[in-house]
């Protein structure tokens, strides 16, 4: 059987022929896995014709399986959905989910409903729900059933938590809370109080599947590391604990993807680390993966098109972008940019763009400059304008649909991303407490969180 899988097979789709390794098709397509392992006559044929698909859709599938990230037109998106459904290719469906944006979400929602791709169907519906006000004028093309489903979903809400160290019950700090912005009333309200032993000071924070994860953090003058990690489940309004990384670390970056948490870099005993660990939620265990290319703490990290990127700098003037490839367990260099080292920098992603924001210790201390790196063209663009006020709001930017949320104690600023530029959209209330912030998006249950902060 192994020797047969090493062979290549010619696939005819419409008038085009594709030569593909059987092993690749068996690995990624349930349709071909069943076909080649069936023992039927077709399983040994050197040439197979598929009549139900278009050559366009099949070619897109092959590009995805080769690790490419093509930008698809409306017609190509439709053909890709058709191919993913007929050949049962999960990696293609995942690619379509990661490529959702305001231009294609309605089409992909309708196509997923038509061809029965349930994960894409729900992901597209959630995207539309989050961008409802921006997309409302285009939703009349949806059937009443599809529109009703979108409106039944809970939109994501902008939330934040300040930097807090552990406390004792008799010294309980009522400000140790996770808060969310109720935009209708323009009020920050309390979602949950942090566990007494949890620290968000120099901790890594991220979300996955509508849960908040907190790893690391310190307490005390000597920066003792909190060795337990914490998870807040929004649906049940409950906290649970899980083990900390094998290497004690603080000032770490935490990101999550497909059932794993990644604790990236950080410090221990005032020494920067280059080690990286991942937490497998199915086994509740941490394991080391490939080190960062260099030791680093508070590493800017963002996910674009379902891919993990970090931003490092090599003093004093080189910014470097790396991608982590989970399948290969490698940090791949993507691009570099020469800029004077800054006081601080951050990174967020939108579509196939990475936005790197920085301010510096000299004449630009009170302002933010931004550079954009496009993953498709591999080109850098210096962004016009000034996107941060003197309180440093942009370092906590998160993006929902085409809207950027930034926040500080004075105000919350919203920007709209149009043609790769950020345009001021609206102003909301600032976070009611001082200090650094971690921000994220959550889908809150339809209950009355009535405690105003």
Description:
There is one protein chain. With 453 residues, the protein is α+β, with helices and mostly antiparallel strands. Helix content is 20%, strand content 38%. The chain has 3 domains: 95 residues, 2-Layer Sandwich (Potassium Channel Kv1.1, Chain A); 54 residues, no CATH class; 227 residues, Neuraminidase, CATH 2.120.10. A 4-stranded antiparallel sheet has the order 6-5-4-31, with no helix packed on it. Strands 7-8-11-12 form a 4-stranded antiparallel sheet, with no helix packed on it. β20 and β21 form a beta hairpin.
- What is the domain tally? 3
- The span between the termini is 64 Å
> Beta-strand level of the residues, as a percent range?
35-45%
| Mean pLDDT level | 90
- Could you list the spans in which at least 5 consecutive residues all have pLDDT below 50? 389-393
Going by CATH, the architecture of the largest domain would be 6 Propeller
Q: Please give the order of strands in the largest beta sheet.
A: 6-5-4-31
CATH class of the largest domain: Mainly Beta
- Approximately how much helix is present in the residues? 10-25%
CATH topology grouping of the largest domain: Neuraminidase
- Biggest sheet details: 4 strands, antiparallel
Count the E strands: 31
* Helix/strand structural class: alpha+beta
The 3D shape can be described as globular
Helix segment tally: 10
**How large is the radius of gyration?**
24 Å
């Amino acid at each position: 059987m192994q020797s047969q899988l090493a062979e290549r097979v010619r696939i005819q789709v419409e008038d085009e022929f594709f030569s593909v390794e059987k092993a690749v098709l068996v690995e990624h397509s349930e349709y071909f896995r069943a076909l080649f392992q069936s023992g039927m006559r077709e399983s040994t044929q050197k040439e197979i014709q598929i009549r139900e698909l278009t050559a366009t859709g099949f070619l897109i599938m092959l590009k995805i399986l080769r690790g490419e990230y093509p930008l698809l037109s409306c017609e190509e998106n439709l053909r890709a959905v058709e191919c993913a459904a007929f050949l049962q290719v999960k990696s293609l469906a995942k690619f379509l989910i990661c490529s959702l944006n305001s231009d294609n979400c309605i089409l992909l929602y309708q196509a997923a409903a038509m061809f029965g791709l349930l994960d894409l169907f729900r992901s597209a519906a959630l995207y539309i729900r989050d961008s409802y006000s921006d997309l409302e004028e285009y939703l009349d093309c949806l059937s009443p059933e599809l529109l009703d489903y979108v409106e039944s979903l809970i939109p994501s809400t902008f939330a934040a938590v300040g930097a807090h160290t552990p406390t004792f019950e008799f010294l309980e700090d009522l400000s140790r809370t996770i808060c969310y912005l109720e935009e209708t009333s323009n009020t920050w309200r309390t979602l949950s109080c942090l566990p007494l032993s949890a620290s968000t000071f120099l901790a890594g924070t991220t979300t996955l599947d509508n849960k908040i994860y907190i790893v690391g953090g310190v307490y005390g003058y000597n920066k003792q590391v909190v060795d337990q990690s914490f998870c807040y489940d929004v649906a049940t309004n409950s906290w649970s604990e899980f083990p900390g990384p094998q290497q004690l670390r603080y000032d770490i970056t935490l990101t999550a993807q497909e059932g794993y948490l990644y604790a990236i870099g950080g410090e221990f005993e005032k020494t920067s680390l280059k080690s990286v660990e991942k937490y497998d939620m199915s086994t509740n265990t941490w394991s080391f993966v490939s080190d960062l290319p260099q030791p680093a703490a508070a590493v800017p990290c963002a996910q674009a098109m379902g891919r993990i990127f970090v931003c490092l700098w090599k003093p004093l003037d080189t910014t470097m972008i790396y991608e982590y490839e989970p399948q290969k367990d490698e940090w791949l260099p993507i691009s570099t940019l020469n800029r004077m080292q800054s006081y601080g920098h951050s990174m967020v992603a939108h579509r196939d763009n990475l936005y790197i924001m920085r301010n510096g210790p000299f004449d630009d201390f009170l302002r933010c400059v931004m550079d954009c790196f496009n993953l498709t063209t591999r080109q850098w663009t210096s962004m016009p304008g000034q996107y941060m006020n003197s309180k440093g709001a942009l370092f906590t930017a998160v993006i929902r649909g085409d809207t950027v949320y930034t926040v500080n104690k004075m105000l919350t600023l919203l920007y709209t991303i149009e043609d790769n530029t950020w345009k001021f959209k609206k102003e909301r209330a600032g976070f009611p407490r001082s200090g650094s912030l971690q921000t994220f998006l959550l889908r809150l249950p339809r209950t009355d969180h009535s405690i105003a902060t």
